[in-house]
UniProtKB/TrEMBL annotation:
This is ABC transporter substrate-binding protein. The keyword Ion transport applies. Its main location: membrane. SUPFAM superfamilies: Periplasmic binding protein-like II (SSF53850). It is found in: Cell inner membrane. The keyword Cell inner membrane applies. Keywords: Cell inner membrane, Cell membrane, Ion transport, Membrane, Transport. InterPro entries: NrtA/CpmA_ABC-bd_dom.
Length: 490
């Protein structure tokens, strides 16, 4: 299967559709090739149609019914060690209408070269085609949710014909349970959550799609001020009680990664407790926890309140790591394909706006109010601009302390699932990392929408990930996992 390609080879091809074809992989790509025939042009047309219609499994459902969809799904995942989740509600009439519309538009395209290329779908979805315009989206009041939050006061939802009510939630458990129950339309989630939910880890299996990444970086390990003279590295956390926001979080996985380097087993040598972020500040203050790894603005608030110091930014452990994501259920996407594309486009547009450093102060003001993050705008400015005090008497300037890149690299998924295995959250020795990444991460659609916005998203789905203590090669995830275990003994 094709994964890594030289940029010159890909860009040297005359047909953008054929360029795209080379970059497809996994179950969706295989079905696209089967259904599309021998022609590269036909194959990529099929791939675009499959993506727009919610995936290849929905094509099978439209043609043969839900039982055939489930059978095809089970067959394709049989070797992956992944249990299929129950078939979601599927509106065949809406799907066929959407598929036929896509085919009509695509017929107007051709493969005669980049100069004549037309996108398979319009860059602007007419509001008259939206299945639903009044939406409810869950979020937690943290800076990781910036694209979802700022899209309301700064007009990004309105730009795409949407009226959005943001529903503030108190914990990731509440978000997860609301998504399983289908209470809202879309959800702010930690990037490992859709993977865990799709695998049935910690909950019933639920078909949740990761549509785009909300933020990269943006967290820190903060230690209680009373440990200021003793904590210098990971080995110094032995015996500590450390708060994390959720088991299936990048916070938990990166903390475990860091502690292991210091020779500490995170389930034996420290005590990890799950707490909502506001309670972490109280814990640092009253001594019930020694440290926390959490999103902003809580680390900066600990510094401002004199109860903690920033020991390490997660950006220092893995530059560019994913934190939070924009998600929706497969069943909701099936019922609202045009609305979903418009909503995801608004989030990607918002994230790209937030990525520009000169917008950060404006954004801090926009998201600070009580109905959103409810924080001092100056605190949010310190986080968003990366110009901050660390609680150790240093003024630091790290512009990408938090950043916003909506592209969902599938190598993110591969690393996350290797760590699920490493720490016993996923007990499957023959787990196929590629299969779950293909099932959950909507990388192709995110690329397509970004292009329509005039952005230049990556053309690959995988990349090397350079962490503080070694490079992760997503083409060899199991080898990476075994090397970690061999080196650190767990």
């Amino acid at each position: 299967m094709l994964k890594f390609h030289t940029q010159s080879h890909i860009e040297g091809m005359s047909c953008p559709y054929c360029q795209e074809l080379l970059l497809q992989s996994g179950l969706e790509g295989k079905l696209a090739q089967q259904l599309g025939g021998p022609s590269s042009e036909q194959q990529i047309v099929w791939q675009d149609l499959l993506n727009s219609a919610g995936g290849a499994m929905n094509v099978m459902a439209a043609a043969f019914g839900d039982r055939a969809r489930d059978a095809q799904h089970d067959r394709l995942l049989a070797d992956s060690g992944i249990e299929p989740y129950p078939s979601a509600h599927f509106d065949r009439r809406k799907f066929l209408q959407h598929l036929l519309l896509g085919a009509m538009v695509t017929t107007l395209s051709n493969c005669t070269g980049a100069g004549n290329r037309r996108e398979p779908f319009s860059s602007d979805i007419p509001t008259t085609r939206l299945e639903k315009t009044h939406l409810k989206i869950a979020f937690l009041p943290i800076t990781c949710a910036t694209p979802i939050i700022m899209a309301q006061p700064l007009g990004f939802y309105e730009k795409y014909g949407l009226t959005v009510e943001l529903i503030k939630m108190n914990s990731w458990t509440q978000v997860r349970d609301a998504a399983i129950a289908g209470e809202l339309d879309a959800y702010h989630m930690l990037s490992p959550m859709p993977l865990a939910m799709s695998l049935g880890l910690g909950s019933v299996p639920s078909a949740i799609k990761l549509a785009s990444i909300e933020n990269i970086n943006g967290n820190a390990i903060t230690v209680a001020s009373r440990h200021r003279q003793t904590v210098k590295g990971p080995k110094d956390f032995k015996g500590f009680r450390i708060a994390i926001p959720f088991i299936y979080s990048m916070h938990n996985l990166l903390l475990r990664y860091y502690l292991a380097v210091g020779g500490l087993h995170p389930d034996r040598d420290v005590e990890l407790v799950t707490l909502p972020p506001p309670q972490m500040l109280s814990g640092l203050r009253d001594g019930t926890i020694d440290a926390m790894i959490v999103a902003e603005p809580f680390n900066q608030q600990a510094v401002e309140q004199g109860i903690g110091f920033i020991h390490l930014l997660t950006q220092e452990l893995w530059p560019g790591h994913p934190c939070c994501s924009f998600t929706a259920s497969q069943s909701w996407i099936d019922e609202h394909p045009s609305t979903f594309r418009a909503l995801n486009k608004a989030i990607i547009d918002s994230a790209n706006y937030a990525r520009q450093a000169y917008h950060r102060r404006e954004i801090a003001q926009a998201i600070a109010s009580p109905e959103y993050i409810n924080a001092n705008p100056k605190t949010l400015e310190a986080v968003l601009t990366g110009n901050f005090d660390d609680g150790l008497g240093k003024r630091r300037n790290i512009p990408d302390r938090i950043d916003f890149d909506p592209y969902p690299w599938k190598s993110f998924s591969y690393w996350i699932t290797t760590q699920f295995q490493r720490w016993g959250l996923l007990t499957n020795d023959n787990f196929q990392h590629e299969a779950i990444a293909d099932r959950v991460f909507m990388t192709g659609l995110a690329r397509q929408l970004s292009k329509q916005l005039g952005q230049t998203p990556p053309t690959l789905i995988l990349r090397y990930e350079d962490l503080k203590f070694g490079r992760f090669d997503p083409t060899e995830p199991n080898q990476y996992l075994q090397q970690q275990i061999a080196k650190y003994k767990f």
